[in-house]
Automatic annotation (TrEMBL):
Residues 122-255 form the AAA+ ATPase domain. This is ATP-dependent zinc metalloprotease FtsH. It is an enzyme of class 3 (hydrolase). Its EC number is 3.4.24.-. Residues 53-72 are annotated as: Disordered.
Length: 338
């Protein structure tokens, strides 16, 4: 064997070992397959056959073997939180326009062959935008339930690294795993890694991260996976990011009728002695998450106070506390002080 061939094999083994160390299963299998192909090209068919048999066809996911979840190789933190069983979405309430766009995504994916016969593909890259607590994450789980998929939520605190080049590497590994394993891949607060590259305060790293994200999105062609970017600061997104998404779905704050439907569901049979119309009016401008918080705390008060019915006073008490908390948070953000 020539020295050049030896160096090539050593290089391949180094890449293989690094993929194992980083628990990057897609990269590990890709490099291993390349080694098998090299053996076939050299007419070493028996060796190639043994290697292929040892590699197998499934991902190694247990014990000390490779995990499906990629990790930061420096800190060992998982880059994704995987939900093998999506959350229950029985209490998902959407306005008509949002529901129509979500149903369209489902319809397209269920009629993939029909679209393909005309040269079209179903939507696979979606941008969800709207205030926190308006159903973006729950809708991601809803889509996962429709197609029996896992949900992978990107852990941005682990994804973003202070080391040059690590963030781009992390991004690619996250996309690699979604290419191999069907899932709904969710980038919550995607604006934190996809800000406008014209930002005057950027020192250069932001541009590199956005460019890496654009490249990863361009090459993302997983047939079964769905990519979702969620943001409540959509105006900060780089214009090029918008163009990478197949559809933009807006999640507005709930209308009066949606709030009433959501409240009825959250009460879940608990008798409310106050007026429903008055309660719906009091929750004007609130998100689903805020309404849920108020009702859960009010019902807990009812239970702890040994009462059988939920009173307007119990709900009002929690509403006032929430308003005080929101006001305090706004003051903290603006730096004002009373």
């Amino acid at each position: 064997m020539s020295r050049n061939n030896q160096m090539t094999e050593v290089h391949s083994l180094l890449r293989l070992f690094r993929a194992y160390r980083d628990q990057n299963d897609p990269a590990f299998r890709k490099i291993a397959q390349a080694i098998i192909d090299e053996q076939l090209a050299g007419n070493h068919h028996s060796i190639a056959k043994e290697l292929k048999s040892a590699l197998g066809t499934g991902s190694r996911r247990s014990g000390n073997s490779l995990s499906a979840v990629p990790r930061d190789r420096r800190r060992g933190e998982e880059l994704l939180t995987i939900f093998h069983e999506p959350a229950s979405t029985q209490h998902l309430v959407l306005d008509d326009a949002t529901r129509e766009r979500v149903d369209r995504v489902i319809d397209e994916r269920r009629n993939e062959k029909k679209l393909a016969s005309y040269g079209y593909s179903p939507k696979s890259k979606l941008l969800f935008w709207g205030a926190p607590g308006c159903g973006k994450t729950l809708t991601a789980h809803y889509l996962a339930n429709q197609f029996n998929l896992k949900v992978g939520v990107v852990r941005l605190n682990a994804l973003i690294s202070s080391y040059m080049g690590d963030t781009a590497s992390h991004l690619q590994r996250v996309f690699d795993i979604a290419q191999e394993t069907p899932m709904v891949l969710v980038f919550d607060e995607i604006d934190s890694i996809a800000k406008n590259r014209d930002d005057a305060n950027d020192v250069g790293e932001l541009k590199r991260i956005v460019n890496s994200l654009l490249q990863a999105m361009d090459s993302f062609a997983a047939k079964e996976s769905i990519l979702i970017g969620a943001s409540n600061l959509q105006y900060l997104l780089d214009p090029a990011i918008w163009r990478r998404f197949d559809d933009v779905i807006v999640f507005p704050k709930p209308t009066a009728s949606l709030r009433e439907a959501f409240i009825q569901h959250q009460l879940n049979g608990v008798t409310y002695t106050g007026g429903m119309k008055a309660l719906v009016k009091k929750t004007s401008g609130m998100t689903f998450a805020q309404i849920e918080h108020v009702l859960v705390e009010a019902i807990k008060s009812m239970i702890l106070e040994d009462q059988k019915q939920l009173t307007a006073e119990q709900v009002t008490r929690q509403l006032k506390y929430l308003q005080k908390m929101v006001s305090a948070m706004k003051q903290g953000q603006t730096g004002t002080d009373e």
